[in-house]
Design goal:
CATH architecture of the largest domain in chain A: 3-Layer(aba) Sandwich
Structural class of chain A: alpha/beta
Largest sheet of chain A: 8 strands, mixed
Distance between the termini of chain A: 58 Å
Number of domains of chain A: 3
Number of helices of chain A: 15
Strand order of the largest sheet of chain A: 4-11-10-9-8-5-6-7
Oligomer: homodimer
Chain lengths: 468, 468
Amino acid sequence: MNHSSSDAIVTALREWITAAPAGAQLPSTRALVAEHRVSPVTVQKALRVLAAQGLVESRPGAGTFVRAIRAARPHDYGWQTAALGSPQQRLPGLSAAMRTTPNDVIALHSGYPDRELLPERLVRAALTRAARGEAALGRPPAAGLPELQTWFAAELGTSMPPGLAPPSASDVVVLPGSQIGLSTVFRALVGPGNPLLIESPSYWGAILAAAQVGVDLVPVPSGPHGPDPDELDRAFAQTGARAFYAQPNFANPSGAQWSPDLVETVLGIVREHGAFLVEDDWAHDFGITADPVPVASRDDHGHVVYLRSLTKSVSPAIRIAGLIARGPARDRILADAQAQAMYVSGVLQAAALDVVTQPSWRTHLRALRGQLAARRDLLVDALREHVPTAHLDAVPQGGLNLWLRLPESTDLPRLVRDCEAERVIVTAGDEWFPAEPAGRYLRLNYSGPNPGAFPDAARVIGTHVAAG
Amino acid sequence: MNHSSSDAIVTALREWITAAPAGAQLPSTRALVAEHRVSPVTVQKALRVLAAQGLVESRPGAGTFVRAIRAARPHDYGWQTAALGSPQQRLPGLSAAMRTTPNDVIALHSGYPDRELLPERLVRAALTRAARGEAALGRPPAAGLPELQTWFAAELGTSMPPGLAPPSASDVVVLPGSQIGLSTVFRALVGPGNPLLIESPSYWGAILAAAQVGVDLVPVPSGPHGPDPDELDRAFAQTGARAFYAQPNFANPSGAQWSPDLVETVLGIVREHGAFLVEDDWAHDFGITADPVPVASRDDHGHVVYLRSLTKSVSPAIRIAGLIARGPARDRILADAQAQAMYVSGVLQAAALDVVTQPSWRTHLRALRGQLAARRDLLVDALREHVPTAHLDAVPQGGLNLWLRLPESTDLPRLVRDCEAERVIVTAGDEWFPAEPAGRYLRLNYSGPNPGAFPDAARVIGTHVAAG
């Protein structure tokens, strides 16, 4: 490859491009070869350089074209200010937990498990099979692939004690991820301007969905063992709310798991107020030293609307959740979900079902338990050693996160910045509070990449907590 | 395999199951082999029979369990009536166009092309490659895979005349299908209780999304050549609306394509009223005797919000749409889309990009043109022969549908029923009207399965139109 002759073509073509309209087709490779008396390889190299500079784009099979360059005149979108008006709801942005970060940091901020914790082989095999099958070209029913509906219903049904009627497949609505499930449920069961009780702290995605729908969040204080039932009862009575959103197993961020007694108490309160419990069972596959027991498995009167996601345990690419609701509530939810998304990709549904029905899925989950336990304990020990003034209300029995309380004097934004300067990425707990934060917290994910660096990360956090 | 011994085990186990609680584990295969003195194959056969009867379920790696039977007592979900209250918006159900039908009918009702019109080989290969790649386990940015954003921007950019600034990749938001795009745009740019102008007739999915968001639809009469500009101007002036939803190329259902003059006129009206045109370019890949020219390619001031779906032309399993908007409108839309869906499966995005950047994608689209032309003409000719009292305002130059006007005296619901009784599935046009239907219409899809039966279908329709 002759660099200088390729450079000469680049220079010549840049001149040509300056005079050409956007979208003009460049001379063919053959013509350039003839004109400049160079090899096709040299021409191709020149075109790649121009493409990398954003000046041209090649369209396979068609040729190479002048890329339109954004005009120099500043764009005037000012008219949109009046057209848009003030937003009806002010949406918070995506959480810092959704940030993608470079590889050379210690990332404790994310909500997603590292790739090494995913069933990679199962996922790739399932997607490959789905690519060959019916699902690659078909359109599944709006409520979901019947076999996947059956699986979601059976999963919940197996936790139900004798005497309670398990859900049927037709009670299941398959959704393209649980986020859309949250907004659908909040819209279908609560509606704009109406109160929704929520644990405080609680999952930021639910707080975001509530803001989008325009429901009024009513925080119910929740500690390391779950919500305070007296406060819950009072909140229902005072607001007339008809729904309570909660994560009864390994809550994000606190890790709390409700005791069987609390489950019965909360269910009693919910029933008494003729209300719904919206149960977000996000960590069903992430039990470590305890097994998750869905509250929905203790109710067959349609009080619990149950949401289970496979995104985090199977793969972020297989964005599938199952929602289980009974009675008219299910019909309202399905109508909203249909208006929202029409139906869910059959490929993703088939692949999800394939993964979770393989014998090695159970093997994977058992191995995952051990990995999560080791990672959790490593981070807990490191924090105890290096951040002695911080406090863990409880070591979670499952889930992916530690909820670390820092001294009240901590300047949280500064701590986050100082840690990031040393390449330790953490998120301030404030985003997990629907109203004023109840303290200075960090949510630390122990399922991210590179657990060997947890002690280093704890040391960095400890240094800056001590300095602050 | 010994049928009678297998039957004996079935009988014995049915008794055992009747006495056992739901969820109880059955004796192991080994124990049953010993107890009944039969082969493991016979035991497995008996278990399969019980599973098929819904009495047990096997969980691979765990064993076989008694399935919970739905309790006989009727469920009382009556409490939900008060909890749910009246719906804030009454959502219409899914359109009859979404019905799945058996293979032995002539289906003219669907909105989706038959599988034989899809690029099956490309889709399967793209999904297989995506299953092997990064996308199978990664989480793409919220606005979409950068390469796919770039592709959507370039597609629109290539239609832009010199002098206009093409969109950039960052103006693109990748969405899990265009339906979610419609509700996101209506919510972000219009908002509940505010007016939205819409062609009448128009796409039922847009009417549904508008109902869900709670915007007030204002119909603007639209004929075989597009909307009436005077009516559009008057509707903007009278309602103060800030947005107009339309399908300028091969509108569903009418097939109308706006002339270049009408494009300029409508853009002028939209600009004058400081408003948005929400352009739904659903049929971009379905030009037959004309090429689609997006109105968005004639505007660089952010007045056109452009929505392009790949679902119908690539595969219903690859549910991907690209939305292009500029200025603050884009930020509002992205914030809503994130709150709604967080991000879109990377596998679907990678597969979509793979398909549309293969050289054979262009080859496929060229062949598709010919197929659609032949199907369209076949159905048009058959209708002219067999339904002489019906009227086609225009033969569409693209898209998938004919919009057939029937005599005013037609009893439309009865016609639909009578045709269905003869296994010809058609949908009444009423669902395409945001308010009162302007006439008796059928929307007939010529891209469904079995085009050879179109003459038969036309004969059936003709018989019942004549009889009615």
